[in-house]
Write a structure and sequence with these properties.
Nucleotide Exchange Factor Grpe, Chain A, domain 2; 3 domains; 190 residues
Length: 190
Amino acid sequence: MSKEKVNDDSKNEMDESTGLESEMKEENSADEKVINNLESEEKIKALENEVNQYKELMLRKAAEFENYKRRTENDQLNLLKYAAELLIIKLLPTIDDLERSLSHMSDESDVLKIKEGIQLIYNKFIKVLEEQGVKKFESIGKPFDVEFHEALMQRADDSVPPHVVLDELETGYMYKDRVIRHAKVIVSEE
């Protein structure tokens, strides 16, 4: 055989083997693409499931928060609505005492006994108010102060300096550290 023919045969064999190799490479790359596509689809499905779980969790938490907010608002409204309940409960026995005193009064009753009974009820009432932080403040003989007093009128009095409280027409009260009712007073004039 001639050298050229051997070269052609070997060239053909090489071309055939190269063609087979490239076919195999193409098949392998196609298989890899299918495998990669399957893996990608599985990853996408896993991620979609995870996203759905987080959405569901978020919706549940949002609903729980709304319920908590509604409960808290109701609790606050009830707290404000019934804030004076304890004070009222403490005042009810005083009302009972007044009713009993009124039921025992008659035309022939001893005025001194009635006065003593009413004084006891008054003391009990003042005690309940003091327990709640309500206190009277004294005004007579003290300098007039707009923070505590409301002047209803002025009267001349040479025995005291000007702007001193001479008389108290209505007692003033403080609740803790705040004036809740100014004392209505008569003040000495210049």
